[in-house]
């Protein structure tokens, strides 16, 4: 019988001891592996979705919340800002700003966010239209690849948005005009895959319908008061209706109610602005402080806030990692105790093997192989626990945040983890193995 089979039979001779060692070892390895996989995928998503954005401008509040809501779309916005106040950062020809992308947030469809913005947002994420075309009118939508896949959307489909980001049928804008899908993006692996992108004016149109219904306004063409009706002095979640010159003819599906540039609507509001600088000179570096100190708005640097988030997460991650290390050490002790106690019971058997011609080196290899077998099996159990847990977490995180996490990604660090597991198995088996080396055959056989 070869050493591998003999080692396996020796281990399975006491299945409960073997099971205890495996469970402890698997828990430690699995926890470390899970932390590695989670951290790797979170960092990948955070870094990829930075999209070269240097600054985010929005309403006063938590800067981290502003970044998470405007760039990662996993938090509620801090509020809205008036276009009049934001105009200096949106106009063309700014000496410092290369690109500024306005965002209007607040509505969603079946958990996916509807974002009022401008077509230049596609350039931030190197996105392109895979099917259909870019929106040209209010209420036209370009769907991200993940949204289209999850909701089985196709060109020409329509939907009504819901207020807020929860899937609540009571919050659907039933009386508002329907959005229509005119384009679908190719997959990018970034946050834009999770969004429903539309013209900046679409959120205003949705809420104008709502206010008009609340006020009991009549939209029929033959209403004598309709021709001179304007939408000023109404406000909903910061989306007021601008100057009286911008009338919305609801009776015509072909008329574009917001034909002008965004900056023409001084009295309306947006949620935030994504800013890319032309260069990182002293003026650019000082812009954040100038906005925070001299305006009613807030500016936040994505890289700084994400590093702060890493720091907050790092404390808990380190604690879990140390817990996993302690579990692995305890499992190593368990392997040692199991082999040591087994050795006492098998001394007579091992002495007989020596009499029958087994060398000291063969017995040494036998004990060490048992320790290594336990380590390998514990490692495999840990990998199964880690990636099984990742599979469950991926489904939950996708349901909550619409982000896709993979349980099939294996890291190079996990191979290093195997090396560490084998080292622990070797060390745990070394003392019992050395005891076999120094065993006196005659005394052992005499003691029977």
Q: How would you portray this structure in words?
A:
- This protein has helices spanning 3-12, 15-48, 63-72, 83-90, 121-124, 145-151, 202-215, 282-294, 302-345, 347-355, 360-401, 412-437, 441-447; strands at 55-59, 81-82, 97-109, 112-117, 129-132, 140-143, 158-159, 162-163, 179-185, 196-199, 269-270, 272-277, 297-300.
- The protein is elongated.
- The strands form two sheets. Strands 1, 3, 4, 5, 6, 7, 8, 9, 10, 12 and 13 form an eleven-stranded mixed β-sheet that branches. It has a two-stranded antiparallel sheet with strand order 2-11.
- Helix 10 crosses helix 13.
- The protein is built from 13 helices and 13 strands.
- It is α+β, with helices and mostly antiparallel strands and 448 residues long.
- It has two domains: 3-46 and 316-447, no CATH class; 55-300, no CATH class.
N- to C-terminal separation? 24 Å
Order of helices and strands: HHEHEHEEHEEHEEEEHEEHEHHHHH
Profile the largest sheet: 11 strands, mixed
Return the domain count. 2
Radius of gyration from the alpha-carbon trace, in angstroms: 32 Å
How many helical stretches? Answer: 13
Provide the β-strand percentage band: 5-15%
Q: Which regions have little confidence, pLDDT < 50, spanning 5+ residues?
A: 213-255
Total E-strand runs: 13
Task: Give the overall form.
Answer: elongated
Mean pLDDT: 81
Residues in helix, %: 40-55%
Computed structural class: alpha+beta
């Amino acid at each position: 019988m070869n050493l591998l089979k003999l080692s396996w039979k020796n281990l399975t001779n006491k299945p409960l001891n073997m099971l205890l060692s495996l469970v402890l070892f698997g828990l430690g390895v699995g926890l470390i592996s899970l932390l590695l996989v989670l951290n790797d995928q979170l960092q990948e998503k955070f870094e990829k979705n930075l999209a070269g954005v240097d600054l985010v401008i929005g309403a006063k509040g938590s800067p981290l919340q502003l970044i998470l809501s405007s760039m990662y779309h996993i938090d509620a916005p801090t509020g809205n800002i008036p276009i009049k106040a934001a105009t200096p950062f949106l106009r063309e020809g700014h000496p410092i700003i290369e690109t500024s992308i306005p965002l209007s947030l607040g509505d969603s469809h079946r958990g996916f966010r509807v974002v009022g913005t401008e077509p230049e947002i596609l350039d931030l994420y190197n996105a392109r239209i895979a099917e259909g075309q870019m929106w040209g009118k209010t209420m036209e939508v370009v769907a991200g690849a993940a949204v289209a896949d999850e909701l089985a959307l196709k060109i020409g489909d329509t939907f009504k948005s819901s207020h807020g980001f929860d899937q609540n049928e009571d919050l659907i804008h039933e009386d508002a005009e329907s959005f229509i899908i005119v384009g679908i993006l190719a997959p990018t692996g970034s946050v834009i895959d999770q969004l429903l992108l539309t013209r900046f004016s679409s959120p205003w149109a949705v809420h104008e319908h709502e206010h008009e219904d609340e006020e009991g306004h009549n939209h029929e063409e033959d209403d004598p008061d309709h021709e001179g009706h304007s939408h000023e002095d109404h406000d909903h979640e910061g989306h007021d209706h601008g100057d009286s010159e911008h009338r919305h003819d609801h009776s015509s599906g072909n008329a574009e109610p917001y034909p002008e540039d965004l900056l023409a609507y001084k009295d309306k509001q947006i949620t935030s602005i994504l800013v890319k600088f032309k260069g990182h000179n002293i003026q650019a570096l000082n812009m954040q402080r100038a906005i925070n100190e001299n305006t009613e708005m807030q500016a936040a640097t994505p890289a700084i806030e994400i590093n702060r988030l890493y720091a907050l997460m790092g404390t808990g991650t380190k604690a879990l990692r140390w817990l996993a290390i302690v579990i692995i050490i305890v499992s190593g002790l368990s392997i040692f105790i199991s082999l040591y106690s087994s050795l006492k019971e098998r001394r007579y058997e091992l002495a007989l093997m020596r009499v029958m011609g087994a060398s000291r080196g063969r017995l040494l290899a036998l004990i060490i192989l048992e320790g290594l077998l336990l380590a390998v099996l514990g490692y495999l159990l840990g990998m199964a626990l880690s990636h099984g847990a990742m599979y469950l977490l991926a489904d939950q995180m996708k349901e909550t945040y619409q982000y896709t996490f993979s349980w099939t990604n294996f890291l190079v660090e996990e191979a290093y983890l195997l090396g560490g597991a084998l080292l622990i198995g070797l060390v745990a088996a070394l003392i019992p193995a050395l005891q076999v080396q120094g065993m006196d055959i005659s005394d052992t056989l005499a003691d029977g």
